[in-house]
Structure formats: C-alpha cells, structure tokens
Amino acid sequence: MYEKDGEKYFVVDGHVHYWDGSPENQANIHGKQFIDCFYGYHSALSPEEYLWPEDKFQKYSEEDMMHDLFEIGYVDVGIFQPTYLKDFYVNGFNTTEQNAVLKEKYPDKFVLPGSFDPRSGEQGLEYLEELVDRYNIKGVKLYTAEWNGQSKGWSLRDEWAKRHLEKCQELGVKNIHVHKGPTITPLNMDAFDVKDVDEVASEFPDLNFIVEHVGLPRLEDFCWIAVQEANVYGGLAVAMPFIYSRPRYFAKIIGELLYWLDEDRLLFASDYAIWQPKWLVEMFVDFQIPEDMQGEYGTLTPDMKRKILGLNAAHLYDLEVPSEVPQPAAVAAGEEEYPEAPY
Known about the structure:
Layout: E1 2-4, E2 7-9, E3 12-16, H1 29-45, H2 54-58, H3 62-71, E4 77-80, H4 96-105, E5 110-111, H5 122-135, E6 139-142, H6 159-171, E7 175-179, H7 196-203, E8 208-212, H8 219-226, E9 232-235, H9 242-245, H10 247-260, E10 266-267, H11 277-286, H12 291-297, H13 302-316
Parallel strand pairs: 3-4, 4-5, 6-7, 7-8, 8-9, 9-10
Antiparallel strand pairs: 1-2
Helix pairs in contact: 5-6, 8-10
C-alpha cells in the first residue's frame, strides 16, 4: 500500500513477470533477440538509479522480485502475465507453471492467470481445462504474435480462438488479457494489431478484455474500439514509464484514455522486471496533467488515481481491499463522464 499526503492507495500491479531469459535457457538467436529488446526498453525508459546489469535482467531471483514488488514497491497484489515463447526458450520464458511456484508460496501476493494458444486446437482446450482444474485461474494472457512452428501469429477472430474464448466463458475464466502493444524483436508488429479485439468484445460481452499496453502505438484505434465496447479495459504497462522520460506524452496518453474510457477501465502495471513499481507508483501519485493541457484533458484526482492503481483490478479479480482505503463509486454507477460512442 502507498500513502502520500494523507491519501491511501491499494496497489495492484496488473502486469508482472518472473522470467528466465538467460543464455542457458535461450534455444536460439531469437531468445537472445527477445530479451535484448526488453533490456533496450528497460535501459531507455528507466531512471538511472533503477537500471540493472544485463545478466541480472536476464534472470533475477525470487528474492529480487519479492523485495522490489512488496517490500519497497508498495504493491499489495501482483498479477502474473505468462509469456510462453517455447520456440525461443528451452523451458519457456515465463509459463503459468513457473509462476505457480511463487503463487503457491505466497498465495495472497499474486493472482495467477493462465494462457492458451488456439493453434493447439483440441489440445489447447484440454490444457485450458487443466489450468482451471489445477490452479482455479480466473484469467488468461494471450500473445497473438507468438511464433509456433511455421506460424508467426494468430488473430482473435480465428475460429479456434473463438472456441477457446467460448471455453473460457464456460469455465468462468472471465478476464482475457491480450498483449496489444509495441512489438518485440523478432515478433511481427502486425500480429499485435488491436483491431481484432473489436469483434470478440462484441461477440463475448460476458468476458472482460484487458488490452495490455493500451494498444500502443495504436492508441487511437484502441480508444475508438473501447468507447463502444464496455467490456474492454486498458492495461497501462509500457505507457507508465513515459511519466518519467516524456511526461507530456504520458499526459496525452492518460488524457485520451480518460476521455474515451474513464478511470473505471484503466489498470496500473509496471511490466516488472522491465520497470519497477516503486518509482512508477510514486511518480503517478505526484503526477498532474500540465495546466496548458487541462482544458482538453482535465485533471487527475486522488480518487481517479486510486481506481487506476488498484481498485479497478481488485474489482475484476474480486480482491479484498482494506477498509481504510476509500472506494469511490464507479463512474458507470452514476452520471457518465465520458462521451457516447461516436456513431
């Protein structure tokens, strides 16, 4: 939990990883390319005092993670986001089974989503059922640009993708996290395009589609989809670190998101270990949209920040929020503060 100027914030980090990108686990050149690209983002957008040496970044310890998230990072609950990448890494980069080790050890500290790959067909459906039976998962993380043999990506519009979403609905897996952000070498940028979210959000209104990285660099496409689809949410991983390196750009991102979606559908995320939650939480609580931009975007209030930092994610995953943390009513419960869909 974070407290500043008498305001208390329950913090849910909506996007954390426990990966192994070490040379020993790299299956080929693509494994090296992938973790090198991550390290490039880390190096370019982190404050100097939070930079890690490359060998630590490739494979950090359980102690590092628990310290950075929960001891100094103000995080109350972290949501694991698995990224299998078994074509690039011998044991996978960051699988549900690997994450489950920490979830079982620290059950109150982590939420454990699973994953599916529709290219696995019937086996994929069986695996999804196994994850629910074994871990009682309530969400999945999807990586539409992941390579699988000769395939270099898939779409949510695909027949087998929809069959897996139907299975999610049947099993009570309601939170569908989809990576729709910047590309990572050597993956294809087009395979992360956000437009396929539109079709499935309409077709599966009982599922929540959390678009990780808010579609960047396709923010406008994401906003025009999300304003029409009430079950589409924005995960702020990758957007958050611009609060330090390009604060006016961050103000534009958050301003556009608040205009189109409102503060009830945005989720804070550090993307640990690319970035650390400590400085992101501190800077976000202190952040205000510049005065010359407020006429268009308005201002950020403590209640808005509280929702984004943790209350929205707590609602999606039925997490208990301490009674001392104020819980403002959702915008949707009262008068809408965002525009109607422009059609």
